[in-house]
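// run 5 | inverse folding | seed 20
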C-alpha cells in the first residue's frame, strides 16, 4: 500500500492554519479535483478527491485534529482502506462549500432536492445513563453513534461521478407499479429500484452504488437541567439514512438516571433520611445536611420525634420547564444507643423516671403516620 501523505501537506496548509484556512484550502482543492471537472482523468481525480476529503474530515474536527497532531494517522483510524470516518460537520460543510456553486449543488444532490426525494430515514436510539447531580445541573457531553450516512462522494445518489441516476424504466420513476387484478388496482413497490424511482447505470466507486456509507460519528449533546429517568431527547436529522437519497431520520437519546446512594426522587422533590442521636432529639441541635449542590444547616428543635420530616424549600430538582425547583424533605430517625458503658447506663437509669411514656397502642391514624415515614 502507498504511504499515506501528511494531511496538512495534502491540503497544502501549515500546522498552525485556522479552521477557516483549512476550509478554504479544501474548497479550492475539491473544486479543482472533483471528478466531474476532470473528465479526461477521472480515476486519478477520484483518488485525489478522496485523499483531500479524508484529510479535511480529520483536520476540520478539533478533536480529531488534536489527536492527529499528536499521534499521526494511527490516531484517527487513517490506516488506509475502508471509508474515511467523516466528522459531524462535513455534510453541512458540503452544502456550504458546494451548494451555491455551478454544477456542484446538483452533484451532491442535497439542498432543496433532498426533501422531495423518498423519505424513510432510520431513527436511532441511544441510551445514556447520567447521575442525579448531572440531571440536576444539566450536562454537555459527547456521544459516539455508528450510523449510515449519505455517501460523501456521490451525495447519496449512488451514481458514479459524471453519471446521473436515470429514471427507473420499470416504474417510470414512480417507485411503484400498479396493475389491474379484476376490479382491484394493486400497487407494489418497484422491484427494480426498490421504490426509489431511479436506477444507477454506473455505481459510485466509494459506496458501490449504495448511496450511503457507514460512519461512526461523535455528536455534541446538551442535556437540560431537570431531566428525569426515561426523558427522551430528540435530535432531529441525526439518525441514519435508509436508502439512496433518503433524508436522515432522527436520533432519540433516552436518559437513565443512576440511582443515588441516598437521595430519592419523586417528581422534582428529593427525600432522604438522616440519623440523629437521642440527645440531639431531646435537646435540639444544628446539624449540617447534604443537598444536591452542597450543604445546608438544619435546625433540629428541642424534643424532635423520630420520623419528623423537615423541608428545605427549593433544594430539590429544577423543573425541566424552567419553573423553579422542588423541595428537599429530610426525615430524621433517632438512633437508640447500643453497647453502653456501665456508667452511661447508670445515667439513663437515673433519667428513666423523668422520660416515662404511656405504653399504650397508638391510635391507628398516628401509627400510619409513623409507618409512612419509615416505609
Ligand atoms: Zn457514493
Ligand atoms: Zn422502479
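// decoded
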Amino acid at each position: 500500500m502507498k504511504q499515506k501523505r501528511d494531511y496538512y501537506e495534502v491540503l497544502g496548509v501549515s500546522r498552525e492554519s485556522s479552521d477557516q484556512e483549512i476550509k478554504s484550502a479544501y474548497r479550492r482543492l475539491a473544486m479543482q479535483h472533483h471528478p466531474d471537472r476532470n473528465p479526461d482523468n477521472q480515476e486519478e481525480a477520484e483518488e485525489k478527491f478522496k485523499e483531500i476529503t479524508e484529510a479535511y474530515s480529520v483536520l476540520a474536527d478539533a478533536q480529531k485534529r488534536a489527536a492527529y497532531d499528536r499521534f499521526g494517522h494511527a490516531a484517527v483510524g487513517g490506516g488506509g482502506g475502508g471509508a474515511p470516518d467523516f466528522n459531524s460537520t462535513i455534510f453541512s460543510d458540503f452544502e456550504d462549500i458546494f451548494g451555491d456553486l455551478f454544477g456542484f449543488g446538483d452533484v451532491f444532490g442535497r439542498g432543496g432536492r433532498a426533501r422531495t426525494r423518498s423519505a424513510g430515514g432510520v431513527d436511532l436510539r441511544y441510551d445514556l445513563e447520567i447521575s442525579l447531580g448531572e440531571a440536576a445541573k444539566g450536562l454537555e457531553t459527547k456521544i459516539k453513534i455508528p450510523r449510515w450516512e449519505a455517501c460523501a462522494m456521490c451525495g447519496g445518489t449512488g451514481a458514479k461521478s459524471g453519471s446521473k441516476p436515470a429514471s427507473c424504466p420499470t416504474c417510470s420513476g414512480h417507485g411503484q407499479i400498479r396493475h389491474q387484478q379484476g376490479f382491484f388496482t394493486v400497487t407494489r413497490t418497484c422491484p427494480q429500484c426498490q421504490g426509489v424511482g431511479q436506477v444507477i447505470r454506473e455505481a459510485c466507486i466509494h459506496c458501490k452504488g449504495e448511496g450511503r456509507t457507514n460512519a461512526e460519528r461523535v455528536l455534541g449533546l446538551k442535556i437540560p437541567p431537570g431531566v428525569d429517568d426515561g426523558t427522551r431527547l430528540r435530535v432531529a436529522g441525526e439518525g441514519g439514512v435508509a436508502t439512496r437519497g433518503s433524508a436522515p431520520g432522527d436520533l432519540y437519546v433516552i436518559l437513565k438516571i443512576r440511582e443515588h446512594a441516598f437521595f430519592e426522587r419523586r417528581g422534582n422533590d428529593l427525600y432522604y433520611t438522616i440519623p440523629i442521636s437521642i440527645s440531639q432529639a431531646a435537646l435540639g441541635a444544628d446539624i449540617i445536611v447534604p443537598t444536591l449542590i452542597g450543604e445546608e444547616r438544619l435546625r433540629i428543635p428541642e424534643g424532635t420525634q423520630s420520623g419528623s420530616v423537615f423541608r428545605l424549600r427549593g433544594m430539590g430538582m429544577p423543573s425541566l420547564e424552567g419553573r423553579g425547583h422542588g423541595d428537599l424533605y429530610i426525615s430524621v430517625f433517632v438512633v437508640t444507643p447500643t453497647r453502653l458503658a456501665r456508667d452511661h447506663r447508670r445515667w439513663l437509669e437515673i433519667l428513666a423516671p423523668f422520660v416515662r411514656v404511656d405504653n399504650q397502642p397508638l391510635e391507628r391514624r398516628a401509627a400510619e403516620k409513623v409507618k409512612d415515614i419509615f416505609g
